[in-house]
């Protein structure tokens, strides 16, 4: 089984240890009575109690209190008599206060400086206010899949934020342990939904990975050469160029025909007729809503797009194809810290779908990334475009009800993390499927399946251990051979590799369309 013995074989960052134990709510723990003290200990405790009672009965005032009050009055008079303008800067404060206002930047060197420096411009370039917004309450721990599997503090959101603070605010070095802890995050963002303080963990993790992937990052922060080469080919040439991806898909189809692709890889069965036949979409500007085709979805799961087109037409809409530039939304690039490439792809996607028509997405990961274009680009146009992005199930709830037949089948609903925690659009999936299927819920409160975009590729052991928990939760309610509904291609492929029958909600809806609704 995946992850067997993970708790007994800690990852590279385990040597950093767990945080120091806190004192109990009552303060310092009560000192135990010395062995053999007997009556002497009881007399000592009685004297202490008597002293405290006498202190409480002591009347207010007295010589000491009068002296303290007089000293406070003299201090207040001195403060009132001072002029309103500020004094001259101290010898070690001139660089930090050039204009009389506190400026961000490194503090001037000087002896005796204590405490954390809450300044910007650290090694990671993160927002210091966001870094210190975590109060370490621990409510995020049950919602973190990697913490649930490993039990390590540094594999939790709280531990990762503490490591970010140590590097960015305290000047701790960026070493292999820090990089391993950041790479081991699935970025499911389940912690954000559970955090009472609203800590933007996803933004902090994206900023950290961007700093680690920057050209000027320390040499010890770099990944192994094989991984760097694979990422360069995938992120620069394959995902961003639709023709290259289609060519690679044809090669994969040939390998499947030769039975050279193992079933555990989770790659769907590719059909040549499906790859040759284009989608039946209207030209840009001639329909009611855009359908985002994307990269991997269009190459490996075009059957899902065909089902989406059929469902949108059954809902009375005419889906249209985006213009040139929608090759990739940049979601995987954001996860990998390749922010510049993600911004370039986001601008191209926005330009490919002008106007005010809804932008319908049948991939939860792509939809979450496109809804964050406003933050990624920081322009009014990007904010307006993000407001138009809507998940397929969420869009269907705004249309007339579909003509569905009752199939009598049972389906276990698996919520993709980016649909549940980021878009908060997981409930419409149940709304549109309920008329045709009997829906079952897992008891794990929407815990991640371990796919995480490319996470399952780079961290297969940890991803497999997380998936084992998800598969067990699904089979606990759906039996040994359940039908699972998942609205994200990564989750779909990852769970299929575990032997589950996973279908996209669009495919289930297309199967349930009544003859008059087809």
Topology:
Layout: H1 39-57, H2 62-81, H3 128-131, H4 145-150, H5 157-168, H6 176-183, H7 190-194, H8 201-213, H9 225-238, H10 242-257, H11 272-276, E1 289-291, H12 296-300, H13 302-314, E2 319-320, H14 331-335, H15 339-352, E3 359-361, H16 364-370, H17 373-377, H18 380-388, E4 389-391, H19 392-396, E5 409-413, H20 417-422, H21 427-433, E6 437-441, H22 455-458, H23 460-478, E7 483-485, H24 489-496, E8 501-503, H25 505-512
Helix pairs in contact: 13-25
Which key features would you list for this structure?
8 strands; Rossmann fold; Fumarate Reductase Iron-sulfur Protein, Chain B, domain 2
Could you write a compact summary of the structure shown?
The chain is mainly alpha-helical and 518 residues long.
Overall description:
The protein has 518 residues and is mostly helical. Among the domains are: 118-221, Fumarate Reductase Iron-sulfur Protein, Chain B, domain 2; 272-396; 409-517, Rossmann fold. The protein has helices at residues 39-57, 62-81, 128-131, 145-150, 157-168, 176-183, 190-194, 201-213, 225-238, 242-257, 272-276, 296-300, 302-314, 331-335, 339-352, 364-370, 373-377, 380-388, 392-396, 417-422, 427-433, 455-458, 460-478, 489-496, 505-512; strands at residues 289-291, 319-320, 359-361, 389-391, 409-413, 437-441, 483-485, 501-503. The strands form two sheets. It has a four-stranded parallel sheet with strand order 2-1-3-4. Strands 6-5-7-8 form a four-stranded parallel sheet, sandwiched between helices. The longest helix has 20 residues, at 62-81.
């Amino acid at each position: 089984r995946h992850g067997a013995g993970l708790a007994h074989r800690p990852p590279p960052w385990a040597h950093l240890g767990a945080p120091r134990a806190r004192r109990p709510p009552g303060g310092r723990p009560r000192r135990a009575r010395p062995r053999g003290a007997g009556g002497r200990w009881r007399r000592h405790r009685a004297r202490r109690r008597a002293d405290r009672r006498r202190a409480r009965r002591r009347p207010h005032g007295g010589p000491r209190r009068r002296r303290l009050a007089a000293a406070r009055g003299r201090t207040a008079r001195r403060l009132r008599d001072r002029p309103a303008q500020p004094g001259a800067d101290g010898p070690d404060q001139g660089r930090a206060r050039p204009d009389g206002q506190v400026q961000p930047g490194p503090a001037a060197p000087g002896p005796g400086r204590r405490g954390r420096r809450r300044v910007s411009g650290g090694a990671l370039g993160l927002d210091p206010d966001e870094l210190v917004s975590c109060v370490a309450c621990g409510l995020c721990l049950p919602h973190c899949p990697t913490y649930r599997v490993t039990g390590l503090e540094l594999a939790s959101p709280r531990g990762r934020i503490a490591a970010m603070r140590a590097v960015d605010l305290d000047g701790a070095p960026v070493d292999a342990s820090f990089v391993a802890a950041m790479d081991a995050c699935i970025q499911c963002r389940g912690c954000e939904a559970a955090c009472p303080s609203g800590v933007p963990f996803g933004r902090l993790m994206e900023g950290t990975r961007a700093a680690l992937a920057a050209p000027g990052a320390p040499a010890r922060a770099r990944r192994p050469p094989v991984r760097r080469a694979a990422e360069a080919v995938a992120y620069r040439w394959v995902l961003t160029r639709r023709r290259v991806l289609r060519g690679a898909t044809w090669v994969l189809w040939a390998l499947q025909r030769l039975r050279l692709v193992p079933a555990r890889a989770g790659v769907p069965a590719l059909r040549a007729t499906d790859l040759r036949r284009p989608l039946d979409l209207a030209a840009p500007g001639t329909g009611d809503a855009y359908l985002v085709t994307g990269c991997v979805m269009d190459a490996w799961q075009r059957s899902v797009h065909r089902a989406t087109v059929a469902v949108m037409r059954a809902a009375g809409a005419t889906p249209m194809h985006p213009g040139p530039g929608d090759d990739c939304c940049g979601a995987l690039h954001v996860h990998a810290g390749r922010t510049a490439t993600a911004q370039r792809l986001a601008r191209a996607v926005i330009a490919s779908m002008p106007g005010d028509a809804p932008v319908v997405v049948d991939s939860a990961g792509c939809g979450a990334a496109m809804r964050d274009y406003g933050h990624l680009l920081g322009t009014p146009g990007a904010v307006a475009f993000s407001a138009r992005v809507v998940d397929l199930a969420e869009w269907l709830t705004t249309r007339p009800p579909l003509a569905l037949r009752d199939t009598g089948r049972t389906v276990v609903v698996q919520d993709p993390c980016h649909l549940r925690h980021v878009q908060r659009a997981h409930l419409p999936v149940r709304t549109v499927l309920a008329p045709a299927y009997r829906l079952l819920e897992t008891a794990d409160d929407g815990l991640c399946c371990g796919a995480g975009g490319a996470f399952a590729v780079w961290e297969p052991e940890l991803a497999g251990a997380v998936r084992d928990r998800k598969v067990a939760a699904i089979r606990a309610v759906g039996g040994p051979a359940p039908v699972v509904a998942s609205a994200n291609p990564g989750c779909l492929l990852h769970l299929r590799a575990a032997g589950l029958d996973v279908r996209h909600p669009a495919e289930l809806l297309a199967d349930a369309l009544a003859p008059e609704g087809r």
